[in-house]
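Exercise 7. Given the encoded structure of a 274-residue chain, write a plausible sequence.
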């Protein structure tokens, strides 16, 4: 496994790789990330991961400074997955002095996380577009847990005719159902136990069989409100591609999603109803 930190090194290494799967990450890897690396390896033969805590996708009052970092542990985990290349650039390699570009792909960035975290998806789309241009991967792998991010990246690729395939992989969960996330590290043991309220709310709605979107939202809200440590940011029942809120579940199914603060830690999760 080669660990490199400049764009020039990536370009040189890429020349010798006919097919490449890319797994963009912000590090502090968990089994969810590693499942993406495994899938990329099995489908593409060669896999690269990037580790870059992207400052432009964090708001001024968000957790950029304290976002968990564990470089050596991450590299050992990637090595164990037989990852071929790891890109760990400095901020100035990605955003040199004078950098000014912004990619705003509109519609799908506006609701849900985008409404609560202004500018977040512009930061994500811009850095992901840069990573796609740097690596020119055959396929790029993302986790369904960040459902809106997946919709944004699919649209980025479609709208800008980027020549690669976006592969969205199932959310990896702890045994009790909590979606794996680097931010779970912020939870105290007591908060960690309460954090299953997200998946409990989603599963209650999915299991209800109700096709009325407002009834599903109400069921999720009511479930979240049973947990005193949990503070609801939003619940949504939306079209899985456009992310527009639905009134009724039709043929296209629905994306159920929510964001909840468990004490100070903001968690998101989602389920797709077919
Ligand atoms: O999902 C993440 O870790 C990040 O948003 C990504 C896609 C690596 C872009 O910084």
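Solution.
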């Amino acid at each position: 496994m080669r660990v490199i930190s400049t764009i020039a090194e990536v370009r040189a290494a890429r020349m010798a790789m006919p097919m490449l799967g890319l797994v963009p990450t912000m590090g502090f890897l968990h089994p969810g990330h590693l499942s993406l690396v495994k899938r990329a390896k099995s489908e593409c033969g060669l896999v690269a991961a990037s580790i870059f805590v992207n400052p432009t996708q964090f708001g001024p009052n968000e957790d950029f400074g304290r976002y968990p970092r564990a470089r050596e542990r991450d590299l050992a985990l990637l090595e164990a997955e037989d990852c071929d290349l790891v890109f760990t650039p400095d901020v100035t390699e990605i955003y040199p002095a004078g950098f000014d570009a912004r990619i705003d792909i509109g519609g799908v960035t506006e609701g849900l996380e985008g409404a609560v975290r202004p500018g977040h998806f512009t930061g994500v789309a811009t850095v992901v577009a840069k990573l796609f241009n740097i690596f020119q991967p055959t396929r790029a792998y993302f986790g369904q847990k960040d459902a809106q991010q997946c919709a944004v990246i699919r649209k980025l690729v479609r709208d800008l005719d980027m020549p690669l395939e976006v592969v969205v992989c199932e959310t990896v969960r702890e045994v009790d159902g909590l979606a794996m996330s680097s931010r779970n590290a912020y939870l105290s043991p007591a908060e960690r136990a309460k954090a299953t309220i997200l998946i409990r709310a989603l599963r209650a709605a999915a299991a209800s069989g109700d096709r009325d979107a407002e009834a599903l939202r109400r069921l999720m809200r009511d479930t979240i409100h049973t947990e005193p440590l949990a503070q609801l940011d939003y619940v949504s029942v939306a079209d899985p591609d456009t992310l527009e809120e639905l009134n009724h579940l039709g043929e296209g199914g629905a994306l159920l999603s929510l964001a909840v603060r468990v004490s100070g830690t903001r968690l998101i999760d989602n389920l797709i109803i077919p």
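Remark. Residues 24-26, 54, 57, 124, 127-128, 146, 149 surround pantoate (CB under 6 Å). Students should compare their own answers with the one above.
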